[in-house]
Amino acid sequence: MAAAVSTPFSIPMLMILFITLVYQAYAQIPQPTDRETTYVFYLQDITRGPNATVAAVAGIKGRNWNFNTFGSVFVVDDPVTMGPSPGSTMVGRAQGLLVVSSRDGAYVNVVLSIVFNSWQFNGSTLELQGINRQNDNVRTVSVVSGSGQFRFARGYATLQTVAYDPPTARSTVRFTITLRT
To answer: Are 148 and 125 in contact (CB under 8 A)?
Structure first.
């Protein structure tokens, strides 16, 4: 009589492994209950003068602290509005840090909280983070979290400078935020 050949996996074990792999693959596919919502807001940025909303707070000793100098750190407290005009309805503030993180000054690490203090999202926040290539026309950062009505938010935001006035150091940045819920 021939000796039984032992195999490292039995048929039931292979079935369990197969079912687990199928389940994992299915879990990675966006489900029909996921829906995307897009919001458009505008940041009103002022980098100089008594009403500046962006300020350099740290940098490498002996170097100018500006938006093109590696190691420069800025704090931000920009009004967030519904439209591109600085006088349009304010819905909150974008507060956080900008860090020039590449030696050539081309990239800025962005960490921003959009704090809604009026409109339908009063008291809620969106948390944005990512690398911003300063000279690109359209930049993208991640929406990594949120609070209130945006709890567990995930998605991305595209940033596009739609207006810049060098004499007043004012710029308007359109934030198109796409969330999956």
So the answer is: yes
67 and 55 in contact (C-beta within 8 Å)? no
**Alpha carbon separation from 146 to 149, 150, 177 (Å, rounded):** 8, 5, 12
| Whole-number Å distance between alpha carbons of 142 and 144 | 6
- pLDDT tens readout for residues 21-32: 767 776 666 656
What is the set of domains in the chain, with CATH numbers? 33-180 (2.40.480.10)
pTM of the full structure: 0.78
Per the rule left: phi > 0, alpha: psi between -120 and 50, beta: everything else, 56 is: beta
Task: Answer for the pair 77, 102: CB distance below 8 angstroms, yes or no.
Answer: no
Mean pLDDT, the chain, integer: 89
DSSP state at residue 50: T
Q: How confident is the model at residue 20 (pLDDT cuts 50, 70, 90)?
A: confident
| Contact call for residues 91 and 119 (beta carbons, < 8 A) | yes
Higher-scoring residue by pLDDT: 31, 71: 71
3-class DSSP state of 2: coil
Distances (CA, A) of 96 to 7, 34, 115, 162: 59, 29, 10, 21
d(CA 51, CA 43): 15
- Bridge partners for 108 per DSSP: 100, 132
